[in-house]
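Lecture 7, part 2: worked example. A protein chain together with zinc ion.
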Amino acid sequence: MLRTHKLGEADRIITLLTRNHGRVRAVAKGVRRTTSRWGSRLEPFTHVDLQLAEGRNLDTITQAETLSPFSGEIGLDYERYTSGTVMLETADRLVSEERQPALQQFLLLVGGLRAMASGERGPSQVLDSYLLRSLAVAGYAPSFEHCARCGDEGPHRWFSPAAGGVLCATCRVPGSANPAPQTIAVLGALLAGDWEAVAAADPRHLREASGVIAAYLAWHLERGLRSLEHLERR
Ligand SMILES: [Zn+2]
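Predicted complex, written out as structure tokens:
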């Protein structure tokens, strides 16, 4: 469940990321009535098993069974909630075509929400790792080792969202960021899912990495994500 918006008096249009059909929009009838039989099953974050009836324009949801009620654990914690919202919004933007299978994006999102709900890792780090991996799956894999221009082996000191990663001293472009070497190492660990290295990192470098990732994401999505502005970083 990525997002919902109102339709008429009592209905909602629900945008879903599905395992087999990619992004799907469907109507949930009566979901805004207080006596709705849907309860919380059709709210953002929830992982559900759905049945749809084909409609003229949009399909209608006829049945929903909760598989994982991530909304409970995520909704109770402000930092998890704001980070999780950025994840949903990113998935919504990166999987823009309707009904084009996007299994890898689906699995990444479910895995990320599960990690976010469990609270075992920092919400910021779960989000950052998710953002890098979903961008990579969407074809925007950043390079944190080799120079993104000439391929020269790193480590390199400069980072440019437009160039797609780190740059060597020769290839560096005006406006390149100059993050700490440890930050670039953390970025690589977040992309690879090397949680041991992430856990050992200095909070300062984790924060700097978050800034680099936000810039990279914003560049690729052309404009910043709305929910990212509300995100408070520790
Ligand atoms: Zn280079």
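The chain has a mean pLDDT of 91. The pocket of zinc ion is lined by residues 147, 149-150, 152, 167-168, 170-171 (CB under 6 Å). Keep this in mind for problem set question 3.
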